[in-house]
Design a protein that fits this description.
The protein is mainly β and about 800 residues long. It has ten helices and 46 strands. The protein is about 15% helix and about 35% strand. The two termini are about 30 Å apart.
Length: about 800
C-alpha cells in the first residue's frame, strides 16, 4: 500500500480543537472582490442543464394507461427563498401550509398503452403539481396543486383527462397526503382546520430562558437538525401540523369531518374502507429529537370517527440506542391483503442491537373488531426490515436483517394459520449483488393496495441482475412451494432494459436505453417475443453523443478488486493523456469478495444533470465515476481502524490504472466527492500526494461533532477518542497541502454535516497557509436545487480544476501545461 503521511497531533488535542470548532462562527468575509453574484459555467453546460428533463411515468392499476409526469428542470432561487419554518425535523412553508421547497412536477399527460393516444391534462396554471394518485380501479386520479398561499385537491378522469377541484385552497400537506377509499369515489385527506387562530408571532422580548434537563437516563442522540428550540417553535409546530381529517366525496365534493383537529402523524384507511388507523402526536415535545420520536398514540377509529381501540401509547423515544428500535408496538400498519387486520412488530431484546438475544423481534397481528388478543405469527432472529403481502390469500414475505454480519433473510409467513411455521425463502449477505434474487413485482388488489402479483402458486421477481460484466436485469417466476425460479426474460445485447411493471396478458412495460439513445418505454409481449415502443423522448443533450464509457476493474494492491466507470470525452483521441477526475464514495464491507463485485452497466445512456461531476467531460477531462473505495473489515466495531490506509490505497490504484491505460496523466489527477465522499476527499488530500487538488461538497470534517457515531461507526467518541481524532480531517488541516474547493448549503439539514463543518475546515486550512476556497450557498440544503446554485457550483468546480489541475505546472516545476494547450 502507499505510504501514509505521519500524524503528529495527539488525540488529546482533539478536545481543545473541538471546543474551538464548536464556538460561534463569525461571518465569512469575501477574500476576492470578484466573489459577488451567481456565475454561469461554460455555455455548453448551460444548454444541457436548461433542456427539459425526461418525464416520470405512473402506470394505472389496470395496466391500460400511463401518466407522463413532467418535471421542472431547475427551479429559480426565488422559490427556495420562500419563508421557511424548520420544526422538529420538518421544513414547512407557513404561507401555503405545505412542505417547503420548489415544485417538482409541472404537468401531466395521459397515454393509452393500446392506441398510443395522448391527452394533455389541463392542470391549474402557475402551480406545482403533486405526483398523481390512482383510484383503486384506475378510472380516476387525484393530485394536489400548490400555489403560494394554499394547496388544492384535484380529481382527473383517466379517459378524458378532464380535471376539477374538489376542495378549496385548504389542504394541509404539512400534516399528510391523501388516500383513496376502495369505493373509488371517496378520499381521506388532511385539511387546515376551520377558523384557525392567526399564525403565532415571535415576541421580540423573550419570556424566559430555554431549559433542558436529564434525570440520569442514557440518551445518545444523532446530530439531528431543524429541531424545536423554544416555546414559539412549539406553537408554530402546532399551528402548521394541526389538521382536520375529512372524508371527501369526489362526485359531490361534500366534506365529512372525522374527529377533532389534532397533530396527526398519519391517518390511514383500512383496505376495506371501514376503519381508520390514526396516529396522533402528543406533548411534551422534545428539543433533542425530531417528531417521529415524540410521544404518540395509535388508535383504530371507524370511518365516521368513533374510537374502536387503542393500539399503542408510546412515550418520548429519546433513549433508543443508536442503531436500535423503540420498545413496545412499532411499525403498526394494515395488512394489505386482508379487509381490516393490523400488523405490528415488537422488540424482544429491549430494542438494543448490542444486547444478547435469541430473537430480536416478533410480528403480531390483530383482526377486526380489535377486541381480541393479538396473535404472534413469527419470531425473527434478527431485526425486522419489512414485509411484502401476497395477493389472493393471507401470505406475506417477511424480511429480517443482521447489522453485524449484513445477512438478510426472507420468510414466507401465512397469516391465516396461527400454527404454520414460517419457511425460509432466501438468506444472503445483503452486499452480495451477484446473489440478489430481486424484489417481488407488485400489483393493486381489490382494495387498491400494493401486493405481490400471483400466477397460480408463483410470484414474479425482478432484479438488477448484477454480473462480473455488469448489470443484466431479469424477470423471474418463483414458486411459493419450492422457491425454485424460472427465468422468463433477461436483458441481453448492447443495451440496458429493465422491467417497470407487468401488464395484462403476460406483457411487460420496460424501460430501454443504449449508450446513445435515452431511456424510453416499451411494451414487451413475452409470449410472442415482440416489443413495441410507446414513448419517444428525445436525447436531452445530443452534444454529448459519442462519450466513451467502460466498466473497468483493477487491483488495489492487496488482492482486493476495485471497479469504476471510465468516461472519456466525445472528441477523445487514442493516446491522449487527459487530466483525470476520480469521483467516489467510501463503503464498508465484511469481505473482499463482496467488495470487489461490479455494479452498473456499460450499456446505459449517460444522462448528465444537476451539478454532476460528469460535466467535466465537456471540458476535456477523463472521469472515473463511482471509483470503489471499499473499507473492509470482518469486525464491524473496528472496521474504521484502517479507513485511511484503505482509501489511500484505492485512490492511488485508480490513478495508476488510468495512467497505465494511457488515458490520463497521473500528474494531473483530482479527487472529489459529496457528503461522506467529501470526508474521503479531505482525508486523501491530507494523507497522500496522489492528487493535485480536490472538490469536497457538503462534508463533515470534525468527528467530535458527531460523537455518538457516524456512517457505520458503532463506537462513541468516548469509547474510541483516538479513532475519532484520526478520522477527523479537521485535525490534520495542516497536512492538506493540495488545493481544495469546499462547497456547502447554508441550511444543510443532513445529520452531521452542519454548514459549520465546512466553515471551520476552511478557517483551519487557511490558517495553515493552505490553498482553499469556500462557497456557501444561500437557501440550499445537503444537495443543491436552484438553477443559480447549480450553475454556480459547476462554474466553481470547473474553474478550480482548470487552475489547479488541468493547467497546473508539472510537480517538478516545469511549466508543461500552459493555458489552452495540452500535450
Amino acid at each position: 500500500m502507499p505510504t501514509i503521511r505521519s500524524r503528529s497531533l495527539s488525540a488529546a488535542a482533539a478536545l481543545a480543537l473541538a471546543a474551538t470548532l464548536a464556538a460561534p462562527s463569525a461571518a465569512l468575509a469575501q477574500d476576492d472582490p470578484r466573489d459577488s453574484g451567481y456565475r454561469l459555467p461554460p455555455r455548453e453546460i448551460v444548454d444541457i442543464l436548461d433542456a427539459p428533463p425526461t418525464p416520470a411515468v405512473s402506470v394505472s392499476p389496470d395496466g391500460t394507461t400511463i401518466i407522463l409526469v413532467e418535471r421542472e428542470s431547475l427551479p429559480p432561487i426565488a422559490e427556495m427563498a420562500r419563508p421557511m419554518e424548520r420544526l422538529a425535523g420538518r421544513r414547512l412553508d407557513p404561507q401555503n401550509n405545505g412542505p417547503h421547497g420548489p415544485r417538482r412536477y409541472v404537468g401531466l399527460t395521459l397515454q393509452n398503452l393500446e392506441s398510443g393516444e395522448q391527452t394533455e391534462v389541463r392542470t391549474p396554471a402557475g402551480t406545482g403539481i403533486g405526483y398523481p394518485s390512482w383510484s383503486p380501479d384506475g378510472s380516476k386520479f387525484a393530485f394536489t396543486a400548490t400555489r403560494s398561499d394554499g394547496v388544492q385537491l384535484y380529481i382527473g378522469d383517466s379517459e378524458t383527462g378532464r380535471v376539477r377541484s374538489i376542495t378549496g385552497w385548504d389542504v394541509n400537506l404539512a400534516a399528510g397526503g391523501i388516500d383513496w377509499l376502495p369505493d373509488n369515489r371517496r378520499i381521506v385527506a388532511h385539511l387546515v382546520p376551520d377558523r384557525r387562530d392567526d399564525m403565532p408571532e415571535r415576541s421580540v422580548v423573550p419570556t424566559g430562558p430555554v431549559s433542558q434537563e436529564s434525570a440520569g437516563r442514557t440518551s445518545p442522540v444523532r446530530t439531528y437538525q431543524d429541531l424545536l428550540e423554544d416555546e414559539h417553535d412549539e406553537a408554530m409546530f402546532d399551528w402548521l401540523m394541526t389538521s382536520q381529517i375529512a372524508v371527501i366525496d369526489t362526485k359531490t365534493r361534500r366534506e365529512k369531518k372525522v374527529g377533532d383537529p389534532a397533530v396527526y402523524g398519519s391517518v390511514t384507511p383500512s383496505p376495506d374502507g371501514e376503519y381508520l388507523l390514526v396516529n396522533r402526536i402528543n406533548r411534551p415535545y422534545s428539543y433533542l429529537v425530531p417528531l417521529w420520536s415524540f410521544p404518540e398514540t395509535t388508535e383504530v377509529w371507524t370511518i365516521d370517527g368513533d374510537m374502536v381501540a387503542e393500539i399503542a401509547d408510546l412515550p418520548l423515544q429519546d433513549t433508543v440506542p443508536i442503531g436500535g428500535v423503540p420498545t413496545g408496538r412499532r411499525s403498526i400498519s394494515w395488512q394489505a391483503n386482508a379487509p381490516a387486520s393490523l400488523v405490528w412488530v415488537e422488540a424482544l431484546d429491549g430494542g438494543d442491537p448490542k444486547a444478547e438475544a435469541e430473537h430480536r423481534d416478533k410480528v403480531m397481528t390483530l383482526n377486526a373488531p380489535f377486541t381480541g388478543q393479538p396473535k404472534q405469527f413469527v419470531k425473527l432472529e434478527d431485526r425486522f426490515s419489512g414485509v411484502t403481502y401476497i395477493d389472493g390469500g393471507r401470505q406475506a414475505l417477511a424480511r429480517e436483517y443482521d447489522r453485524d454480519s449484513r445477512v438478510a433473510r426472507t420468510w414466507l409467513v401465512d397469516f391465516s394459520q396461527t400454527r404454520a411455521e414460517p419457511r425460509l425463502v432466501e438468506e444472503r449477505n445483503i452486499q452480495d449483488r451477484y446473489a440478489d434474487p430481486g424484489t417481488p413485482v407488485t400489483t393493486r388488489n381489490e382494495f387498491g393496495r400494493r401486493v405481490a402479483l400471483v400466477d397460480g402458486d408463483s410470484i414474479f421477481m425482478r432484479g438488477r441482475g448484477a454480473t462480473p460484466k455488469g448489470d443484466r436485469p431479469f424477470l423471474h417466476k418463483m414458486s411459493l412451494q419450492s422457491f425454485d425460479k424460472t427465468e422468463l426474460w433477461r436483458n441481453a445485447g448492447d443495451n440496458y432494459e429493465t422491467v417497470v411493471d407487468l401488464l395484462p396478458g403476460m406483457r411487460v412495460l420496460t424501460s430501454y436505453e443504449t449508450t446513445t439513445t435515452p431511456p424510453n418505454y416499451y411494451v414487451r409481449d413475452l409470449a410472442r417475443g415482440t416489443r413495441e415502443q410507446i414513448t419517444d423522448f428525445p436525447n436531452p443533450h445530443p452534444q454529448l453523443t459519442g462519450i466513451k464509457k467502460e466498466l473497468v476493474t483493477y487491483d488495489r494492491g492487496d488482492d482486493v478488486t476495485l471497479s469504476a466507470t471510465l468516461y472519456l470525452p466525445p472528441d477523445y483521441r487514442e493516446g491522449q493523456e487527459l487530466p483525470l477526475v476520480v469521483w467516489a464514495y467510501p463503503r464498508e464491507f465484511n469481505d473482499a469478495r463482496t467488495a470487489g463485485q461490479i455494479a452498473g452497466s456499460p450499456h446505459r445512456f449517460t444522462r448528465i444533470g444537476g451539478y454532476s461531476h460528469l460535466f467535466f467531460l465537456t471540458q476535456g477531462y477523463a472521469v472515473m465515476d463511482g471509483a470503489t473505495m471499499p473499507v473492509i473489515g470482518d469486525d464491524p466495531e473496528t472496521v474504521n481502524d484502517t479507513f485511511i490506509e484503505q482509501i489511500v490505497a484505492a485512490g492511488d490504484a485508480a490513478v495508476r490504472f488510468a495512467a497505465e491505460r494511457g488515458v490520463a496523466d497521473a500528474d494531473r489527477a483530482a479527487v472529489g466527492g459529496h457528503s461522506y465522499g467529501a470526508f474521503m476527499t479531505a482525508h486523501l488530500l491530507a494523507a497522500s500526494d496522489t492528487f493535485r487538488a480536490g472538490i469536497a461538497r457538503s462534508g463533515a470534517y470534525n468527528r467530535t461533532l458527531t460523537p455518538f457515531g457516524f456512517q457505520s461507526e458503532r463506537r462513541t467518541f468516548w469509547q474510541a477518542p483516538d479513532v475519532y481524532f484520526e478520522l477527523s480531517p479537521f485535525m490534520h488541516a495542516d497536512e492538506i497541502n493540495e488545493p481544495v474547493l469546499l462547497t456547502h448549503g447554508m441550511i444543510d439539514n443532513n445529520s452531521g454535516t452542519f454548514p459549520m463543518q465546512s466553515e471551520r475546515m476552511y478557517h483551519a486550512i487557511k490558517g495553515h497557509g493552505g490553498t482553499v476556497r469556500l462557497v456557501m450557498l444561500p437557501y440550499e440544503s445537503h444537495g443543491y436545487r436552484a438553477r443559480e446554485s447549480v450553475m454556480h457550483v459547476l462554474a466553481e468546480m470547473i474553474d478550480w480544476l482548470d487552475e489547479h489541475v488541468k493547467y497546473a505546472e508539472a510537480r517538478g516545476g516545469d511549466a508543461r501545461y500552459e493555458a489552452g494547450e495540452e500535450d
